[in-house]
Zn(2)-C6 fungal-type domain-containing protein
Amino acid sequence: GQRKSPTSKTAKPVIRRTSNGRKDGSVEKKVGRRRGPLSEEQRKQAGEIRKLRACLRCKFLKKTCDKGEPCGGCQPSHARLWQVPCTRIDIKDINYFLKGWKVDYERHTSRNVSVFNVKGFSPNETLMWITHGYGFALPVYVREVYVNDESVFQVDWVESHLTDQEPIEFDIRTDRLDVGAKGVSVDALSAYLDKHIDGPFEEFIDDHFEGTPFITEILKTAHRFYVKEKMPVIRKALKLVLAYNL
């Protein structure tokens, strides 16, 4: 008969297994182009969602949103890839709220507050208790500072709460004070921040980030997650938020 090459092997039939990644064998409906016109019920639902505005998760993942609070897509608590609460906000508005967030603050810190303006310090130090109004106080030793240009102690700002009213201007001169020679105690500062995390954290977030629902909801969700899980890395992140914004 016909001789076979020793290197040739009998070809085995290849069996391809399909997996949808689910243990129960159920197949998830693929997201693709719709075929044919919408039904009357679908058209009505789409119109309602358009008025209400789809949530951010459904926008990014190109899913069909619904009127629920939270919507059906945001309800599963085990969804690991989406930790942001169901938020119905225009994505363009997010950037709008962040523009110039610290303009007024930076305007004062970028003035002549530098070592070149300082002539010297008083040898006497006084203990001062500093608070941000949430029931806790931070002990800091302060001393008088002597400068060449005293205009750096002049602080001005405007406040406006009513749209039909002109902003009210404020002007005040601060005391000529600087932190003592030893600086701020790291342990005391850490304890001060800890008290805010274990206490009125959400109240601070509401006050400081007023008018920015996207940021306030993210930070509140992170804090509630920490309260539930007690993860040290989340606590460190929350302390950083406090330290940079208090």
In short: The CA atoms of residues 4 and 10 lie 10 Å apart.
